[in-house]
Amino acid sequence: MLQHAIALAKPENPAVTATDPSSRDVRMRGFQQRSSFAAALAWLDAWLDGSATRHAGQTPQLVDLAQCVGRILATDVVSSYDVPQFAKAMMDGYAVQAAAVAGAAAAAWRVLEEIGVCLPGSGFDGAVAGQSAVRIMTGAPLPPGADAVLPVEQTRREEGRLLAVASVAAGKHVGRVGEDIVAGETVLRRGRRLRPQDAGLLSSLGVADIPVVPAPQVAICVTGDELLPMGAPPRGYRFADSNGPMLRGLVERDGGRVVLQCQARDDREALRAVMHTGADVLLVTGGSSVGQEDHAPVVLAEEGELAIHGIEMRPGRPTGLGCLRETLVVLLPGNPISCLCGYDFFAGRAIRRLGGRPLAWPYRAVAGTMARDLPSQPGRVEYARVALDGVRVEPLAISGSSLLSTATRADGFLVVPAERAGLAAGEEVEVWLYD
Fold first, then answer.
1. Closest by alpha carbon to 142, among 99, 181, 96?
2. Calpha distance 186→76 (Å, rounded)
3. Do 222 and 319 fall into the same domain?
4. Are residues 200 and 329 in the same domain?
5. Which of 125, 275, 332, 393 could bridge to 342 as Cys pair (CB 3.0-4.6 Å)?
6. Is residue 10 part of a domain?
C-alpha cells in the first residue's frame, strides 16, 4: 500500500530564501533550481508551527447553535446538569408500583385505580400508592411513589375497571436521573468537528453560544488578462475563470472563510495592490511560473518572503510558498489541475491546520490494484487522476494540467512518491476519492 506522500522524510535544510528579491526573478529563464516536495512541506509546517505559537491563547469565536455544525470546538464542554434531571416515563402507559402488579397475567389480572394523568412538561399533584395508577405519556416525570411504567398494551378496560394483564419490574420503562449525562461530565472535547447530533446535545445542556476555533480568513486572487468573470461564456481568445469557484469550494470545505475573491490583470502593480489583504492565507492563482507575465513570485519576494518557488512535483511544479507579514501566501499555477494539486498538497493543509482541523486530507482512502503500469520520474512526486472499476485502478492522467475534465471524470487520485520510478500493473495502491 502506498503511503501518503506528505509522510516523506523532511530534510534538515528545507529551504533557502534569497535576500535579493531580483535573484528570485526566473521569468523567461526557467527554474534554475527546484525544491524537493519534502523541503516545501517542511517549510510550510515550520511556518504553521510558528503561526500556532504566535496565535496561542487566541480567543475562541462564539457562534450560536444554528451555526456551530461543522465548526471546530475550541474548549471542552462540561455539563452543568444531569440529563435527564428527573426520572421520566419511556413508554406511554401507567405509572405504578411494581409490587401492585406482581404476578399479573391475562388470566390473573390485577385491578388498578386510575387516579389521574401526567403529561410531558407537567408533574402529577399527588402520589402513587398501593393499587393506584397514573396515566402517563412518554417523557412525563414519574409521579412520586411510582417505580415503573406499565405499557398501555399490557392493560385493558373491562366494565369501567382498569386491569393490569402483565407484570412489570421495578425501574422498567423509566429513564433514570443522569442516565444520559451526569453533571460535571466532559461531554465534548476541544478539537472536535461538531456534528448535527452534537448541536442537539449542546442544546439539551442549555449551551446556546458555542466556543469554536475562528475560521481562517482566506483571500483568493485569480490573475490573467485572458480571464473572463466566473461563469461567463468564452469570447474570442478569453475564457471564464475556473480556478476561482474551485478554490472557494475547497477553502470552504476545509473550514476557511473567504473574505476576498478577486481577479487581477497580469500587471505587477495591480498584483501588488491586492497582496496586502491582512487575511490569514492568500491564494494567488496564475502568474506563478516563469513566463514574461508571471509577476506573482517577484512581487511576493519584493513585498515579503518568497521561500519556495518551483517544486519537484507533477502537476503543480510552479507552486510557490512564502509569507507577507502574518499572511501565508501560496502561489498556485493557473492551469486548473496544477492549481488543484498545489491546493491539495499545501494550501488545504495550511487552512485545516490554522482552523484546528486534522492535517490529513478530507478524502476517503480505498485500496485498489493497478490495471496497468504507471511510469513516473524518480525524484518527483506525481499526482495521478484515476478511475475505479471495482478494485481495478485505471490511470487517467498525470500530465494535461490544463484539462480540468480529467478531474471531473476521475473517481479520485493516487500519489506516486518521489523515490519511486512508477507503479506496476497488479500493484496494490491507495486511492483518495474525490467524493
1. 96
2. 7
3. yes
4. no
5. 332
6. yes
332 domain residue, yes or no: yes
348 and 413 share one domain? no
DSSP single-letter state for residue 73 = B
Give the burial string for 70-90 (b: 16+ CB within 10 Å, else e): ebbbbeebebeebbbeebbbb
Q: How many Å apart are CA 59 and CA 76, to the nearest integer?
A: 14
Read off the pLDDT band of 31 (50, 70, 90). Answer: low
**Sequence letter at residue 95:** A
Return the pLDDT at 15.
42
Instruction: Specify the long-range contacts of residues 75-79, CB closer than 8 Å, at least 24 apart.
Output: 75/190, 75/211, 76/186, 76/188, 76/189, 76/190, 77/186, 77/187, 77/188, 77/202, 77/205, 77/207, 78/184, 78/185, 78/186, 78/187, 79/181, 79/182, 79/183, 79/184, 79/185, 79/186, 79/187, 79/205
- Pairing label, strands 364-370, 392-397: parallel
Answer yes or no: is pLDDT of 151 > 60: yes
Angle, vertex CA 237, rays to CA 235 and CA 241, nearest 5: 70
The residues, any chain, with a CB within 8 Å of residue 35's CB and separated by 6 or more, are 14, 15, 43, 308, 309, 310, 311, 312
Q: First CA to last CA across the chain, in angstroms? A: 21
Beta carbons of 391 and 411 less than 8 angstroms apart: no
Residues 220 and 326 in one domain: yes
- Same domain, yes or no: 54 and 66: no
Q: How many CA atoms lie within 13 A of 237 on its CB side?
A: 3
Calculate what percentage of the chain has a pLDDT beyond 90: 74
Residue type, 89: A
pLDDT tens for 225-253 read 888 888 888 888 887 889 999 999 999 99
Task: Look at residue 181 and tell me if it is in a domain.
Answer: no
| Helix 268-275, helix 296-303: angle, nearest 10 | 50
Transcribe 334-388 into DSSP letters.
SSHHHHHHHIIIIIHHHHHHHTT--SS-SSEEEEEEESS-EE--TTSEEEEEEEE
* Chain segment 268-311, per-residue pLDDT in tens: 888 898 889 999 999 999 877 666 667 889 999 999 999 999 99
Give the number of domains in the chain: 4
> Which domain CATH number covers 401?
2.40.340.10
